[in-house]
Design goal:
This protein is mainly α. The protein contains 10 helices and 3 strands. A 3-stranded antiparallel beta sheet has the order 1-2-3. It is globular and about 55 Å long. The two termini are about 30 Å apart.
Length: about 250
């Protein structure tokens, strides 16, 4: 299922969400312009290579600089291909604006980065011996999805489901769509623990770690209630057309 849009408009321009998307795209084009050998060295230096931190003797022997923890931030601005960055930025575009609306731009940035760091640490713990660099904003965006899941469960997500080359569009409650997404990550991550091979190049446990971190941290980054916009009845849920404007609930 491919998410197309949600049904809750944001109150303010999602300045930080747009900025993060632009920065990720600029860095990706910078990667695309690199020769293959330079790009390989670049992603090893600025991506998360777990063995670099769990096996410092090996890291020193192969040429990693010691005491460098910058990759815990930089890895979330690197991507491994067109599909990788498009899917990540599309998810951030759909879900980021409402979460930023609830937090404000600078709190949202801090929240986003912390979720990305938590995702990297989870991957480091689960795949401690891996020498493969891990890249992408997926872990940070998973934290954004968790905040959306908790704060906007009654939002409707319009999704595309291609069946035999025919596009089918329908709506799903946000709690169902995002809950199904997390369940898929959890089961795939659990299955990956049972096999020694890399799981199709996807760091499922980074997604799980980012999502769980987002579910906890979001409560510490939300703005006070008086700064939030009250949703209109037609923005989510079911509007009762015969409800009185005074006294009776409309949804």
């Amino acid at each position: 299922m491919i998410p197309i849009k949600d049904t809750i408009p944001s109150r303010n321009p999602a300045i930080m969400t747009y900025t993060l998307i632009i920065v990720n795209v600029v860095v990706f084009f910078f990667q695309v312009a690199m020769p293959d050998d330079v790009l390989e060295q670049f992603v090893h230096l600025f991506g998360i290579v777990p063995a670099r931190y769990t096996h410092p003797e090996w890291a020193e022997r192969v040429g990693f600089p010691g005491g460098d923890y910058l990759p815990f931030l930089t890895h979330m601005f690197l991507h491994g291909g067109w599909l990788h960055i498009i899917s990540n930025m599309w998810s951030l575009w759909i879900f980021g604006d409402n979460v930023e609306d609830r937090m404000g731009p600078f709190r949202f940035l801090a929240f986003y980065l912390l979720c990305g760091v938590a995702a990297a640490m989870t991957h480091l713990f689960i795949s401690a011996d891996s020498t493969v660099p891990t890249l992408g904003a997926s872990g940070a965006i998973a934290g954004v999805l968790a905040a959306y899941f908790l704060w906007f469960p009654h939002s409707r997500i319009i999704v595309l489901l291609p069946i035999l080359f025919l596009p089918f569009f329908f709506e799903l409650p946000a709690f169902f769509y995002l809950g199904f997404w997390f369940a898929g990550q959890f089961f795939s991550g659990t299955a990956s623990l049972l096999t020694p091979q890399e799981s199709g190049g996807i760091a499922f446990w980074a997604h799980i770690g980012g999502f769980m971190a987002g579910g906890v941290l979001c409560w510490f980054f939300q703005q006070s209630r008086r700064m939030r916009r009250r949703f209109e009845p037609d923005e989510y849920g079911i509007e009762v057309p015969w409800a009185s404007r005074r006294g009776l609930p409309r949804y």
